[in-house]
Amino acid sequence: MTVRRILAIAALALASSGAMAQAAAPAVDVNLARNLAATCANCHGTNGQVRGTDVKGLAGVPAANIVSLMAAYKAGSIPNTTIMHQIAKGYTDDQIKLIAEYFAAQKPAAGR
Ligand code: HEC
What we know:
binds heme C; 55% helix
């Protein structure tokens, strides 16, 4: 078998496996909002429900409030932030909207 022939077969295999992977992937990732929101959980609690910390919970906060706070953090217009001005820059506006809608739909933990 010539090197050229081996390369041609490898290229064909790669092309067809790519096509298969595309066909298998769902058109819409139904877990995208939840997964994006999970990146906030270390500090804001699972599903935005904080326990025993000074960081504010996000569960049940109206999506518009979260969106505008994130925009303000991104723009650097909230003074004395420790971390959110950097975190906010890591997400697109579309991603922030998904995250905000996810948290808005969560029930806040009792007493918060
Ligand atoms: C490393 C910890 C950490 C992570 C991760 C984190 N935050 Fe924060 N968040 C904070 C802290 C601390 C504050 C208080 C402001 C500050 O010091 O930056 C805050 C404040 C906020 C506020 C303002 C709350 C209010 O009512 O004033 C919002 C909204 C917010 N975070 C959203 C998010 C979102 C959305 C994510 C995920 C994309 C996220 N945070 C990830 C630590 C974090």
